[in-house]
Amino acid sequence: MNGRRLLAGVCWAGVVAVAARGAAGSWNTARSLAWLTDRQTKPVGGGGPLHVVVILPMLREQRIIADTLGYFAKLAESCPAAVSLAVVTTAREHAERGRFPEARSTNELAAGLVTELRAAGVAAQHYDYPDPGGTMAHQVNYAAHGEIQRLRTAGVPQDQVWVALYNADSRPHPDTIAALAARVSGDERVRLVQQSAIFTANVPRLLAQGRLVAAGAGLLQTRWTLAREIPRLRRQARHARRGGRWPHLAHCVGHGLFIRADEFTARGGLPVETMNEDLAFGYLACAAGTPIEALPLLELAETPDSVAALVRQGRQWFWSYPEYPAFARLAGRQGLGTRWRRACLTVQGLARGGLWLGQSPAVAAALALPLLDRRRGAVAAAAAALTLYAGVPLGLMAAHPATRTHVPRSARALVGMLGAAVVSSAGPWWCCASAADRAVRGTTYRHDKTER
To answer: Cα separation of 92 and 376, whole Å?
Structure first.
């Protein structure tokens, strides 16, 4: 009996945590959607001369490479700014052909497709990174430096060149480049712009196939974009512009990230010393006091098709959290920020990692409370907490024009979100075990591919 009471007390603590995070998350989701509405009612386009280089790193993307290049070619043709595409494949794919046999490699397909695009008048380049031991950051840096040098030779001023990073499954809003041009026009301080993504492109298909948890993960990640990522970007940019003593940490994400060419060159490109390059790059920007501006147009992306893939993705994404002290050392070597500033940013990053580790236990506890405490108040409290955490954001997303196309308002979607929340910490805990193994035994871990 005492054991049951103890477990019920733990579950009550989980309900309180879920309710608190759910209330804040619902409020922030509503505010982010309102911000998107407000910004999208204003004119987009205009601005000064701009040349955007879209970098598309690819590894084993045979299934979607043609659709991806077709989409970005149309995007380039419809933009008022000059846009060029840089597809960068890697020798790693050839080195791994025995593990992933395909009739033709992405490298071969990319070369042919880029040739077709150039014949059709699209400014496109194909780069093939030659080191099979390289990561996606190496691919991006290789292509970006090549394109920056090409445009410099052509006489294009570096403050007019922007490097845009996207993934093979990225589908940015058609007005993205016009919105970027309008945002950066006349403001010398704008050097980094982040377009946030919703991960719902394949959610309707996954729900139709009965893959509720996989579909729910896309909805849960979209909730995180609205409830956490966008508010943090807006807050960081606001405080960085004011030059306040207390720094705010915001994420850079490796898709939908726009970096002005002179900023990219000054940073030496994306960091290659860490497991994940994008959060490390964002940390360096925050340490330097550089605003990371949020773009009020969303990118549409996919979520993994299976629970196993979700766990692998979570493991790879979480690598940044145990590496926040390494980010601080990297920033220190580059002379970015004071020791106090770096310490504040590191504490924020580690705390957020702790919240991610606790997400699954807290949601599981809230779901289990009615089984251990069958009083009406317990059932009502658990239902209210879970509604705040998932139900309210789902309803908001399903109603808003920017997100509703791929967000169904259904009980199956809600069940999927809660199921995804229960497994969401598995990858991070696995990552912690790997990080401990690396620290103790010196085991080498390599950046995993988190998509197809």
So the answer is: 58
Cα angle 61, 210, 68 (rounded to 5 degrees) comes to 20
Q: 358-370 b/e with 16+ CB inside 10 Å = b?
A: bbbbbbbbbbbbb
pTM above 0.85, yes or no: yes
pLDDT in tens, 79-128: 877 999 999 999 998 888 766 666 789 999 999 999 999 999 999 999 99
Contact 184, 286 (CB under 8 A): no
pLDDT digits 0-9 by tens, 11-31: 999 999 999 999 999 999 999
Supply the pLDDT for residue 102: 66
